[in-house]
Specification:
heterotrimer, A alpha/beta (about 350), B mainly alpha (about 325), C alpha+beta (about 575), A: alpha/beta, 2 domains, 8-stranded mixed β-sheet, 4-stranded antiparallel β-sheet, C: Dipeptide-binding Protein, domain 1, 6-stranded mixed β-sheet, 5-stranded mixed β-sheet, about 20% strand, globular
């Protein structure tokens, strides 16, 4: 940390979408920091606001139908209140993004090469030949065999894994310092997932960039992340180092996630315990703790759970935050004595 | 690919045969079923107060006394090998493809068709340029400014354009711009491009606009719908994430994809128009294929009807083929791997 | 009935025409000095020359909503075509191009004088005028006239023209024109003793042969230049104009013929430099262009379309620039005595009384565009027309009381049911049928509408006697127009019972009165012209006594008078503007 300012700092980020039915508070007061060379995993169910967060950082929301407030500092520049042209110039250059479904995320009518070349030439005044060479190099670096030939293929001619590699190549072509990967492996089969994760890990170390991995898959987080941010109902409910979150999670929702998601490191893949109930409506969040209707420990809060909105407070681990009414000791006890044995049974 | 094209062309030829046979049958069989004789048919091509003898001679001359399959066979043979026409003072060789001679004017049909095609082509191309320019621009702008006053105005305009028939807009256009204001040409003043490009342009300007109005309205709606759908696609988000300028996102990524289905419709519309923009040509008295068809049907002039029907069918079939082939060019996913 | 009878009957009509032209027509007294300027008012060009001028130059723009039947003078049978082709063709005789009744008078054109009859009218001799040349400079010879007439015997190449010459000339029936009957000697029919004399030899005497000599079929054609069916693409001109461009089905233009000598032609002014004719132009567009002045003449001469009619009649300024000539045409309804109970005369009379003629008139477009209410079969301009009304009613709205009386008399006091047919393509006929349905309904006569296609209306349906009987077509909506303004030509096809054929095809569906047939024969035999004309009225009246025809309206048309032209007048011979005398202002 050269000057005390973190590389990326998000402060009280709110992304609200006014609709006819009411305001959808997709992200409602999210704050976190991230340094170069570090990886942050953002996890949560669908609709928890994790993808909107990434779009918010990238400035990819439509200003006509989204209200964005708060601050996003990227390497000393504030993005939320910056002009759209300023943000556009950073996009794809200093910060880049890898999307979930590489098939639908790449233009079906243009070759892979052309799309990478386009990405490069937006930010570099070079000839098409130079850009093409760069694109071929990039494809080679992400592990695509015979890149000089495959560069002229169309997305539909690539396999799923290859497409994701190409997508990564396109994102990395301008050496971004911040890379956001939104569900980078969801659409891929398991063996390919592992390869892609390895690739991302290697590339991140190589480029020394900051990486945000957005996923509902804790396995991915375990693989890549240094820190983990658990989102629920547009808010952060637990934050901590990866080890902390996996070894000593304190939020009932995180426990639920751990129980409901298949993990490569867990032996009993067939023993999944789904979280009861449905994700909350982002228009009308439940009163009190947003998670209380689905929380089986809510009765132990003495009524606080359904009435008072809990704050994000320091938890047991170092640099560990949690948003829960249960006392720290109680949480640690429940995890150690009730939940963990259940998961490992 | 070549094999595919050949297969399609063979099928097209077969289709044209069926169409010609059907047209032929309608002309001969329907009146026969209603009780007409070959004399009743021939009576259409003689003067008033013709004697039965004259009618009989004309019926014989036009071949109406022969069985229908023989008459049809003769006509088909003419297309492949040409035919001979006795105009009294001599025999004229009608080279293949010989579509026969008009029952009314005695003119060979094929040169007429080629001549009329140039008019229809002029009309169709000019109108197509206009309607594509107008329709795509209006559609794209409304989609990108969805809900704005501009969008609403454009969609009202296009609803009007789609619902107003050409014989209405054409007549009003003629009345106001040609006859009252005198700024466009009156009907029936077509001049070929090769004779006088200025006159050609002047005569076609209003027909182009009227025809384009109807189509551009339709294309504006299609473009708008296509753009709205496309702009919600993931790859548009990717394009933005790459830092592309909004204009490039809209045009290179949005329009490009939105235009593919429009290309299909355009190809078919254009092919259909080449067979004759019947209403427009009728309203503006343009001597194109559509007007030719109407005149031929009005006069029961079978060789003309057959010729123009086949030509129209030919263009529709070819347009279908071209659209299919073009689709493969435009959308790489369709290409045969 | 042999195959020539129809032509013979029609041909004899021409004889009657001779008489009519000779005695002038009557009633029309205003064929005064054609130098009188007319004001721009309604009917300004009806009997006077409107906007007279001798100014030369300019182009007259004409349009036709259909195609020309043929530009070949030997192969055309439309009044407008005969009117127009005088610009490029000179027949032996022609109708005098002047306004008023004098326009029905014949004058020499290619011939020096009128025909000289001999052998009691069996032989007719014409002298060709000196100095008449074709557009290529070769002089016109008598043999060219002979050839022109002979070529029309080829009914395959020239099926559209009238067939009078075939019916009258002493030429064998097997003769099929110079192309097919090569080397046949036809001198027994037409002889040319020298280059300036052509002699027609008839099978029997025919006093009205001059009318045949005025047919466009006598416009000379040099044999060496005849291209058969293709001749119409470039007719060799003898008139003041010749073909410049001709795009069949689209347009053609005429330019001045340098070899036309005005000294040889007393009838033609030849004022404009050119004529530009568009074919197959949208009929409504023609009207709009006429009204805006973008076009001078609707060449078909049948009047404006319904769409423009309202504008013309409703706008005083437009109405003032239009003319409303009466046409030699009657819109009527046949009452068929072959269908019970119309076999009883009183039942037929009930229809005559009950019909509301104003409704009939409205159906055809009202007093201006439709025509005047008719009470006779002959229209008033036909020589010999007699005014009478056997079934009068107040304002022509029908006499319900008389109709009920007649119904009682025929034993159907509460009315009866029958069918009425009309041509399905003709909205006016449908409206007429509906109007009758309504007015006859007032006395309990119930009509069912029966539309039939017009192409086969007379051959298959309403003109086919067995069909009429089997389908109980008591009433048949009908119409008739004559080629020339002549009593016999008008009456013979619709009141002579001998034209009715069991196989169908006749316009006469209802008139079978032996006495009328005899009266017609007697009139034809009459040699005194005035006496002949006097016989048409009584025949008309006799038919009306039988109540087998319900006259509807005497047709009229609304013509838009060209704004920028001079010497505009309605020709009484063609009942449209005379195309020979027009000039550009």
């Amino acid at each position: 940390m050269p000057d005390g300012h973190p590389f990326l700092e998000v402060k009280d980020l709110k992304v609200h979408f006014p609709t006819d039915d009411g305001v959808v508070r997709s992200v409602d007061g999210l704050s976190f920091k991230l340094e170069r060379g570090r990886t942050l995993g953002i996890v949560g169910e669908s609709g928890s606001g994790k993808s909107v967060t990434s779009l918010g950082i990238m400035g990819l929301y439509n200003k006509r139908n989204a209200d964005v407030s708060g601050e996003i500092w990227l390497d000393g520049d504030e993005l939320v209140n910056a002009g759209s042209e300023t943000v556009r110039k950073l996009r794809g250059d200093k910060m880049a993004m890898i999307f979930q479904d590489p098939l639908s995320s790449m233009h079906p009518y243009y070759t892979i090469g052309r799309q990478i070349i386009e990405a490069y030439r937006v930010h570099h005044k070079v000839s098409k030949q130079v850009a093409r060479k760069h694109a071929v190099d990039m494809l080679g670096r992400v592990g695509i065999p015979q890149p000089d030939r495959r560069v002229d293929d169309y997305p539909h001619q690539f396999s799923g894994g290859m497409r994701q590699r190409a997508m990564i190549a396109m994102a990395l072509v301008n050496d971004p310092q911040l890379l956001i990967a939104d569900e980078p492996t969801t659409a891929l089969d398991v063996t390919v997932q592992a390869q892609i994760l390895d690739l991302m890990h290697d590339l991140q170390s190589e480029f020394n960039s900051a990486l945000i991995v957005i996923t509902h898959d804790l396995g991915v987080v375990a693989e890549l992340a240094d820190d983990v941010l658990v989102m629920y109902g547009g808010r952060c409910v637990e934050f901590g180092g990866a080890t902390t979150i996996f070894e000593r999670p304190e939020h009932p929702y995180t426990w639920g996630l751990l129980g409901s998601m298949p993990r490569m490191d867990r032996p009993n893949l067939d023993r999944l315990i789904p979280i009861p109930g449905l994700p909350p409506s982002l228009i009308n969040l439940p009163s009190g703790c947003a998670f209380h209707p689905r929380c089986r420990f809510e009765p132990r809060t003495g009524g606080l759970g359904s009435t008072v909105r809990p704050e994000l407070v320091r938890a047991g681990g170092s640099n560990h935050l949690v948003r829960c009414h249960l006392p720290t000791e109680e949480r640690q006890r429940i995890w150690a004595e009730e939940v963990k044995p259940e998961l490992e049974a | 690919m070549i094999a595919y094209i050949i297969r399609r062309l063979v099928a097209a030829v077969g289709l044209l045969f069926i169409i010609s046979a059907a047209t032929f049958s309608i002309f001969y069989l329907v009146p026969r079923l209603a009780g007409s004789s070959s004399e009743t048919l021939a009576a259409r091509y003689v003067g008033r107060a013709a004697t039965p003898e004259t009618i009989g001679q004309v019926a014989e001359q036009l071949g109406f006394n022969d069985p229908i399959w023989l008459q049809y066979g003769r006509w088909v043979k003419g297309i492949f090998t040409g035919a001979e026409y006795d105009y009294g003072a001599g025999i004229e060789r009608c080279p293949a493809p010989c579509f026969g001679y008009s029952f009314i004017t005695g003119q060979p049909v094929w040169p007429d068709l080629i001549d009329r095609l140039s008019v229809t082509l002029s009309l169709a191309i000019g109108a197509a340029i206009l309607w594509l320019a107008m329709g795509l621009t209006i559609g794209a702008v409304s989609a990108l400014r969805r809900g704005s006053i501009l969008d609403r105005a454009a969609m009202t305009f296009s609803l009007a354009g789609v619902s107003l028939p050409i014989f209405f807009t054409g007549m009003i256009g003629l009345l106001v711009f040609s006859y009252q204001l005198g700024i466009t040409a009156p009907g029936g003043t077509y001049t070929p491009f090769t004779e006088n490009p200025g006159e050609w342009f002047y005569a076609l300007l209003l027909p182009w606009i009227v025809l384009a109005l109807q189509f551009s309205a339709q294309y504006a709606r299609l473009t708008r719908a296509g753009m709205l759908e496309t702009m919600g696609e993931d790859y548009i988000r990717t394009a933005r994430a790459k830092g592309l300028r909004e204009r490039d996102v809209n045009v290179k990524h949005g329009m490009r994809a939105a235009l593919t289905p429009i290309l299909t419709i355009f190809g078919l519309d254009f092919g259909l128009l080449l067979g004759g923009a019947i209403l427009t040509e009728q309203v503006f008295s343009l001597p194109g294929l559509g007007k030719y068809a109407v005149d031929a049907i009005t006069n029961n002039d079978l060789p003309k009807v057959l010729g123009v029907t086949l030509m129209a069918a030919f263009f529709v079939v070819i347009a279908n083929l071209v659209v299919d082939l073009l689709y493969a060019v435009v959308d790489p996913r369709v290409r045969v791997g | 009935m042999n195959r020539y009878s129809k032509v013979l009957v029609a041909g004899t009509a021409v004889l009657a025409l001779t008489l009519s032209a000779a005695c002038g027509g009557g009633g029309n007294d205003s064929d005064s000095d054609s130098g009188n300027a007319a004001k721009a008012e309604f009917n300004a060009a009806l009997t006077k020359v409107y906007n007279p001028s001798e100014k030369k130059g300019g182009t007259i723009r004409l349009a036709n909503s259909g195609d020309w039947d043929s530009l070949d003078p030997g192969d055309t049978y439309y009044g407008y075509s005969w009117n127009f082709l005088r610009l490029y063709g000179r027949s032996l005789l022609m109708f005098k191009p002047v306004p008023g009744a004098e326009g029905n008078q014949l004058v020499p054109d290619l011939a020096e004088g009128m025909g000289v009859p001999s052998e009691g009218g069996k032989t007719w001799t014409y002298k060709i005028r000196q100095g008449v040349k074709y557009e290529d400079g070769t002089p016109v010879k008598a043999a060219d006239v002979k050839y022109a007439v002979l070529r029309t015997f080829d009914r395959v190449l020239f099926p559209r023209g009238p067939e009078y010459f075939r019916a009258f000339l002493n030429i064998p029936a097997s003769y099929n024109g110079p192309f097919k009957s090569k080397g046949v000697n036809t001198d027994a029919g037409i002889s040319t003793p020298d280059d300036n004399t052509v002699v027609f030899h008839l099978k029997s005497a025919f006093g009205g042969f001059d009318y045949l000599a005025a047919l466009s079929q006598t416009v000379p054609v040099p044999q060496a230049k005849d291209t058969g069916a293709k001749y119409k693409e470039h007719v060799l001109s003898t008139g003041p104009y010749m073909f410049d461009q001709n795009n069949p089905g689209k347009n053609f233009t005429l330019k001045r013929n340098p070899n036309w000598d005005p000294a040889s032609d007393p009838n033609r002014k030849a004022l404009p430099d050119a004529y530009d004719v568009q074919l197959n132009v949208n009929a409504d567009d023609i009207d709009n262009r006429l009204l805006s002045g973008d076009l001078d003449i609707d060449v078909a001469g049948t009047g404006v379309q319904p769409a423009a009619l309202g504008r013309v009649v409703g706008d005083p300024a437009l109405k003032a620039s239009s003319d409303n000539p009466v046409l030699p045409r009657l819109w009527y309804t046949s009452i068929n005595p072959t269908v019970a109970p119309l076999d009883k005369i009183d039942c037929r009379k009930a229809i005559e009384y009950a019909a509301d003629k104003t409704g009939y008139q409205t159906a055809y477009g009202g007093p201006l565009a439709g025509g005047d209410i008719a009470t006779t079969i002959l229209p008033p301009m036909i020589p010999g027309y007699k005014k009478f009304d056997l079934y009068p009613s107040a304002d022509g709205k029908g006499d319900v009381a008389k109709a009920k009386e007649a119904l009682t008399a025929c034993g159907q006091p509460n009315g009866f049911e029958t069918n009425i047919s009309y041509r399905s393509e003709r909205p006016k006929e449908k409206a007429a049928a509906e109007s009758l349905q309504q007015s006859l309904g007032r006395v309990g006569i119930k009509l069912t509408l029966k539309p039939y296609p017009q192409g086969d209306y007379f051959t298959q349906y309403a003109g086919n006697p067995p069909f009429v009987k089997n389908n109980k077509l008591g009433l048949v909506v009908n119409g008739w127009g004559a080629d020339w303004n002549d009593g016999f030509g008008f009456l013979s096809q619709i009141v002579d019972s001998r034209v009715i054929k069991e196989a169908g095809g006749s316009s006469n569906t209802s008139v079978r009165i032996p006495q009328v047939d005899q009266m017609l024969d007697k009139a034809i035999a009459e040699t005194d012209q005035a006496k002949r004309d006097a016989q048409w009225g009584p025949i008309d009246e006799r038919v009306m006594q039988e109540a087998v025809i319900l006259p509807g309206v005497y047709a009229k048309s609304i013509l838009v008078r060209p704004k920028t032209l001079t010497n505009v007048f309605v020709s009484d011979a063609y009942n449209m503007y005379d195309y020979l005398s027009l000039g550009v202002a």
